[in-house]
């Protein structure tokens, strides 16, 4: 298999596996216990938190471990809304039209349950948030603004630095889903010197295990508990910690950040090689999203006149792993809400695929994958010809 779906998940890195193994075998103590094995687990959690904080330049106590990005997004949105209600304010939130479903569905749930109200910001044809529209909505004094760092489908980077400045001027907290960014780019390239008030990260996107992540909560920000019960995570997220997963996440983060710039440069070379090969043979192919302001390993391509679903099937049969928009339960592809928000037609959305490259991909693999994509796309065109 040639794996070109790194935006979905990546393999567990060797450093993470090595760090996790002792905590999956002999060092299995509960970190809340007072005896030695519990103390060792608790110390390991503290070391992991410190290590992750060092990659961010933040305080260790500003990081709260979760089961991943979805949980962190739910926590940020619903807890801020709850804090607003407790102050006697009407919880009004702002997000963008291209957010991950973990944000959009949480907002929809919150509105249906009467917990909050919200509005969505439009994006440009490149998929970047409209800052003029943001300024207008900020006049409504929202309890929170949520804007992802980079879109998971197109890889387009969002104007977070500018949006954060607008929010800071008005003392409005900003949350960002950084699941696609952390471990892919230095955060300073996207944010400058300031971090958002809250942001979400998931380990399996950068070589850690699945089922673990964290939410950053700026010190002093009033955000309530996610889960109620024990005193774990300083009383904000009850439940026995996933010790091995957290340690694996920290190990993956350390390994990733050592070679972050080098890895990003390689992914960019591979994605550009793939794009040039495909466009040379299929000149009608269009890149969705920004060609410049994007994650280095992301490509979202529109293949005119070709069903993305059929092309995916043929690529899978040929050993190529790629992806398209969100799939419904029946297996039929729904048109991507991201591409529709960018102004693509439903036809264009149904003819677009995402290819995302990782550090273990080689130029030989990319050339082979491009050749297969070209061949299968031409086959589908021939089959569709009258």
Overview of this structure, please?
Helix 7 (187-191) links the parallel strand 6 and strand 7 (198-202). The longest helix has 22 residues, at 260-281. Helix 2 runs parallel beside helix 8. The protein is an alpha/beta fold. It is built from 13 helices and 12 strands. The two termini are 33 Å apart. It has 2 domains: 14-258, Aspartate Aminotransferase, domain 2, CATH 3.40.640; 260-384, Aspartate Aminotransferase, domain 1.
Strand portion: 5-15%
Number of helices: 13
Instruction: Give the CATH level 1 class of the largest domain.
Output: Alpha Beta
CATH superfamily of the largest domain: Type I PLP-dependent aspartate aminotransferase-like (Major domain)
Sequence of strands across the biggest β-sheet: 2-8-7-6-5-3-4
Distance between the termini: 33 Å
Runs in which pLDDT lies below 50 for 5 or more consecutive residues are 326-330
Q: Compute the gyration radius: what is it?
A: 22 Å
CATH architecture tag of the largest domain: 3-Layer(aba) Sandwich
Domains, number: 2
User: What is the fold-level CATH name, i.e. the topology of the largest domain?
Assistant: Aspartate Aminotransferase, domain 2
Alpha-beta classification: alpha/beta
What average pLDDT do the residues reach? 95
Indicate the overall shape: globular
Strand and helix order: EHHEHEHEHEHEHEEHHEEHEHHEH
How much helicity do the residues have?
A: 40-55%
